[in-house]
Design a protein that fits this description.
It is built from 6 helices and 12 strands. It is of the alpha+beta class. The longest helix is centred in the middle third of the chain and has 16 residues. The two termini are about 35 Å apart.
Length: about 260
């Protein structure tokens, strides 16, 4: 993969993780230990991309489904579409609003402002379906915690991106998005710069954190026990960027 600079290559280095992440574990510590076993190390200029599931597990964002009592509305919806009413109840409890509910699909806006299916509630790669995993309470803060721990242990500055898999309107399949960012700007603003034909760009604001999340998704698969990776060679902009910067304000959203 090539960056905008044709002389510079971008590498994506997977980080394999054996064993489970438990509540209270240090995500940074676990990943550094895994890297040592793989003879892989972070260097200045690298970006660490982490799937949210290990972050949520470390933060205890797990709900035992046998302790969930679904409402009559959740039971009715689940019965109609052969779903688990408990999962529906958890998804609704994690939402700020229901965006769309139709044909067994529940699209919500989370408390973070993310629009996704089931408020990001997921049963895969947890404990075989007995528990549901929630999104981190504050993914930007979670990314900052990991970044601080890396700096403390390695004495180098490493930006961190936390990702999740989302579906998209008008497109089939899932892709990764950045839900937490620390240490870099989430967007690159090219407006007022001139292209190769001297045209002044008017609307080009690139969601680089999402693009890096997608790149990481090529190696951080759901079945590969690879919950993180190193992106090396990308010329990011250092700064106090946040994933919430990528959420379009309601006043500018033509689809609300």
């Amino acid at each position: 993969m090539k960056s905008s600079n044709p002389r510079r290559e971008i590498q994506i280095v997977p980080i394999l993780l054996d064993g489970e992440i438990l509540t209270g574990d240090s995500v940074a510590g676990k990943l550094l230990e895994a890297m040592r076993h793989q003879n892989v190390s972070l260097t200045s200029g690298d970006i660490l991309v982490v799937k949210h599931k290990i972050v949520s597990k470390a933060e205890g964002q797990v709900v035992k489904l046998d302790q969930v009592k679904p409402s009559a509305g959740s039971r009715s919806w689940a019965r109609k579409y052969r779903l688990d009413a408990r999962v529906t109840e958890v998804a609704i409890s994690q939402s700020k609003r229901i965006v769309r509910r139709e044909r067994g699909v529940l699209i919500t806006e989370t408390q973070h402002g993310l629009v996704c299916a089931n408020s990001g509630v997921d049963l895969s790669n947890v404990d075989g379906g007995r528990s549901a995993l929630l999104l981190p309470r504050d993914p930007d803060y979670s990314a900052k915690v990991i970044q601080r721990e890396l700096k403390k242990q390695l004495r180098i500055f490493i930006p961190v991106i936390i990702t999740d898999s989302f579906g998209r309107p008008w497109r089939e399949g899932l892709t990764e998005v950045a839900i937490g960012v620390a240490g870099m700007k989430a967007m690159h603003d090219y407006r007022q710069q001139r292209d190769s034909h001297k045209y002044v760009l008017q609307a080009s604001v690139e969601a680089v954190a999402d693009e890096l999340a997608c790149a990481a998704g090529l190696v951080c698969g759901k079945l590969s026990r690879t919950p993180a990776c190193i992106i090396r060679g990308f010329d990011y902009q250092r700064g106090r960027g946040l994933a919430r910067d990528l959420i379009r304000p309601a006043a500018n959203d033509l689809f609300r």
